[in-house]
Amino acid sequence: MEVILKQDMANLGQKDEIVKVKDGYANNYLVPQHFAMFATPSAKKVHAENLRQKAHKEEKIKDDALVISKKLEGVSLTISTKTSSTGKIYGSINTIQVAEALEAKGFNIDRKQIALAEDQIKEIGKYVATIKLHKEVKVEVQLEIVSE
């Protein structure tokens, strides 16, 4: 029996895949638990149309991410913070401060899209932040942490 998966299933397949399973597995587990739906001819047509529309939307999101990544290339951020006499930062610099610095430069980037080489920066110096705009589009931004 063929079913269309509604979510990723270990050892079975990914979301939106059409897979063959035994009748009892589909009737007694996958469909009642809403993990899959029966792959009838009409459901396959609807599924194909949904995949086509999803691919079109995904392409537009990727194009927008590429435009933003071109603008972000070469951008370097300077973040000033209070430090001790030895160069240690009181507290730390994390993705929230990087997102605020990007917003001050005119980029509206969510902090969840920003990844630092270290979880938190605790000393002044130069660092690199990776911004994941799309699953295929990443850009690196140079950070310079200075003392106030």
Structure write-up:
By secondary structure, the chain is an alpha+beta fold. The chain is built from 3 helices and 9 strands. It has helices spanning 23-30, 41-72, 95-104; strands spanning 2-5, 18-20, 36-38, 76-81, 88-93, 114-116, 121-123, 125-134, 137-147. The strands form 3 sheets. It has a 4-stranded mixed beta sheet with strand order 4-9-8-6. Strands 2-1-3 form a 3-stranded antiparallel beta sheet, covered by helices on one side. It has a two-stranded antiparallel ribbon with strand order 5-7. Strand 8 (125-134) and strand 9 form a beta hairpin. The radius of gyration is 23 Å and the shape is elongated.
The largest sheet is: 4 strands, mixed
- Coarse shape: elongated
CATH H-level name of the largest domain... which superfamily? Ribosomal protein L9, C-terminal domain
| Average pLDDT, all residues | 91
Number of H- or I-type helical stretches: 3
Radius of gyration, whole Å: 23 Å
Low-pLDDT residue spans: none
Number of strands: 9
The amount of helix comes to 25-40%
Structural class estimated from helices and strands: alpha+beta
| Strand residues, percent | 25-35%
CATH topology title of the largest domain: Ribosomal Protein L9, domain 2
Core attributes:
single chain; alpha+beta; Ribosomal Protein L9, domain 1; Ribosomal Protein L9, domain 2; 4-stranded mixed beta sheet; 3-stranded antiparallel beta sheet; 9 strands; elongated
